[in-house]
């Protein structure tokens, strides 16, 4: 297996995830080639990411209309290691790989029921101000929460 | 062909549409059965509907954060007459079938490049208040615009 | 509440479902109006339907390339009773309302965590031959299985 | 603007595209943050890519059930430079950046009506055998066609 450039040691990397959700492939997510359409990997990563935000207590803040902060995705990437079929149950994992002033580099992994790694990914998220559109530094509380979930492997 | 209950005379009905858009089937919209996934018919209808709203000058109002009005879908239905494949170019039509106080019954049709009717549909839209969530009567101007596009066939 | 025409007694109807799945609203399924985009109701119904097929033992047959049978959706409709938000957990139910020779009229319901009915729906499915595209009668075994799940309320 | 690592000279890079399609943002593609949901960038890239395949004469071969070849996406990435709103018209471009034995590194760009670059991306596609699942070298004809569209800027 060719390991993506953002992963140093794939074994260590796989062990470093602490948060995961379970997603089962929907029929509407397959395409005429008979497998999961590649675009849906990013839907799965987003679902893991928003559930991760929620577990950190961030989602309430970002979906609160009164609050000036929101979060955007600056970049996303995915490596497709294994074809995924209808009705497969995936364990989709997410972690903070590196923490910035107002951003975080998140890493993603998805494995099937046999424990085979099917998808790996990464992407930078940035907290921004709704009003100015500019990046907004994590406050102390958020920073601490994020740091306890940061594993640079 | 079994004609859906909301259509009286299919020939007259097909001729009664004045507004249409063109949509080409994306690969990501097919499914493992090799055809357009049925759920995407409603994506196409929505696209025709929002373009129709836009042509009437309504979309600006409804997406304006300062304006209390917005529009919701109260019900939607679709009849699948013909299987649709990847890359087919569809002519998707929409019209007002009947006008209510704050609502409208919209009808939809989609035909392929050979002029074969593939999808028919209908659904009620309702203008509501963002604040109260209650229905909001069309104002005089909107009512007039909608009436000129209402064809009860 | 205005009860859709395909429901006789809404209380009886709600009690008649035996099969359900749980679906949580994804962020990518919301739209700029801040709620679940209406087109995704049909994605949820499809998910309930394919899981229902699977529970009946039909899905394996229909996704088997060697088997001539497959299933199509002849029509679908949905009534939107209650706005649905990001991250709500829905109980999506499906049942056979009426059984035909090669078809079945399926009914759908979705309720939120408070037990409030948010979506109701129905639609005809038809078993067809992959080769001829024509309807294919249920065999004895399928018919029996479907009959035990048919509740005409 | 921070230029993604896969782009050397952004000005040269932007000029190097020869193939483009036009895509207008659908309402169902926005999310509760009021903009295009990030996952749909990959739907747009896929649409540009399949139209590109079609223009090269490859799509017919790959969707032909009798032919053993098909194409898969090995990896995909996208950089989000500018927020994209409902109803914006995007020019989505694709080119071959580098050609392999059975693969190709494709680059993508999307700009809005004002000519502002909103999305950049890249990803490797691989031709594979349906039967073995292994990579399948481009034949002479395909190779020549791809080479005339390869611009390593």
UniProtKB/TrEMBL annotation, chains A, B, C, D:
> Which InterPro entries does the UniProt record give?
4-hydroxybenzoyl-CoA_TE, HotDog_dom_sf, YbgC/YbaW
- Entry's Gene3D superfamilies? Hotdog Thioesterase (3.10.129.10)
This protein's record includes keyword Hydrolase = yes
Q: Which domain of life is it from?
A: Bacteria
Q: Name one GO molecular function term.
A: fatty acyl-CoA hydrolase activity
Keywords noted in UniProt = Hydrolase
Which Pfam families does the entry mention?
4HBT_2
Membership in a protein family? Belongs to the 4-hydroxybenzoyl-CoA thioesterase family.
Official protein name in the record: Acyl-CoA thioester hydrolase
